[in-house]
Amino acid sequence: MQDHEVVCDILVVVSxxxxxxxxxxxxWFDVAPSAARLTSSLRDIGYDFPTAVADIVDNSVAAxxxxxxxxxxxxxxxxxxxxxxxxxxxxxxxxxxxxxxxxRRPYMRGxxxxxxxxxxxxxxxxCRSVAVVSRSNPDVxxxxxxxxxxxxxxxxxxxxxVDPGADPDVARAxxxxxxxxxxxxxxxxxxxxxxxxxxxxxxxxxxxxxxVTKTAEHLGIVFHRFLEGVDGKGPLVxxxxxxxxxxxxxxxxxxxxxxxxxxxxxxxxxxxxxxHVNLQRFILPSRDKFSSSGEFERLSGPLNWNxxxxxxxxxxxxxxxxxxxxxxxxxxxxxxxxRASLDFSTDLDSAFNINVAKxxxxxxxxxxxxxxxxVNELCIYANDAYRRSSRPKPKxxxxxxxxxxxxxxxxxxxxxxxxxxxxxxxxxxxxxxxxRIVASLCREAPEISALLGLDG
Length: 456
Fold this sequence. Notes:
The protein is 36% helix and 20% strand. It is of the alpha+beta class. The strands form three sheets. A seven-stranded mixed beta sheet has the order 6-5-7-4-3-8-9, with helices on both faces.
């Protein structure tokens, strides 16, 4: 290495004509980016610790793993994170390709990867050194290991990986692969996780303990379908520091009070890409109809009931975004029990503009329009369920008071009729006209409006 800055252009003269339209005498210049500066920028691509771990687990799922173990170990400045799986592993060549920035390997339909950046950007968002150890041959105990170290990259200003040599942490990872194929990702020099000063202190230790809890919670959410078993495959097992991750299914399928509206399927075309999007709509039971108060609190989710309402967007069965209605409508206390799943395949990645961290999508404009009616219909029913659950329960009356019973039945029938009218207006595309009718009815005949449940 020279200490002074060297500026160099590599000039290549193209002397043939081919199908790409190259002309004799045309020249092109190799202007490879500065590896040191590029990696510095890529560290701020938008991950936090749990989402970075989840991106590594994506690779484990793609590798056919049945078990993934995450170990977050506090040891002051020598703290480390291991993410180990029992997938099919990588050959030495595939391992090197996996550490390439923008891997050249093609992604197949259904693969959770997309940009060829995840392993690198997710890891380096949290640490300065990432080691990958892998075994791909089930019959031969032979592992390969490489390290991507930012100190080396910055020193050489080139995207280089190195052999770890006699590294005790890597040797430990190799021992886990003694029984079969798989891959271990090791994060060290956790400068984005540990405080620069006093990495050995109590605050750093408490932060690690908190990260263990948050990571387990996050993995239980985004991979809940895999943890439950999907596409005829057995459930994936994920552990964090030895504790099995419990799936968090936002739709509470085990609750007997759950209501589901008819599923819908939409065709989306963006440019030359066409695919299908599936919508399922649910109304979760109110607190008094949940199987237990503990389950009610658990299903409230990390954002709590109000902010957990809305669309849950899945890409190839992996949850990528949740909470809120993606601009279709606002969050409302009266619709907090409404949740809907929106599923799209990797074919529609470009249409949904999924980000590198796989935590944000944008709904295609044409899909947003198609979703307005079914989403608003769901919220109408959720609103009605909320109001019915919040009404005080009627006091018991003697059995011989048939008249009172008849009045209650008529009142309930009227409220049901009002709900059906609202849903019909929504389904027929006459929602604006319906709102004008309701406003007029509330002014001219408030007692009828109240009887139909339209005054809320």
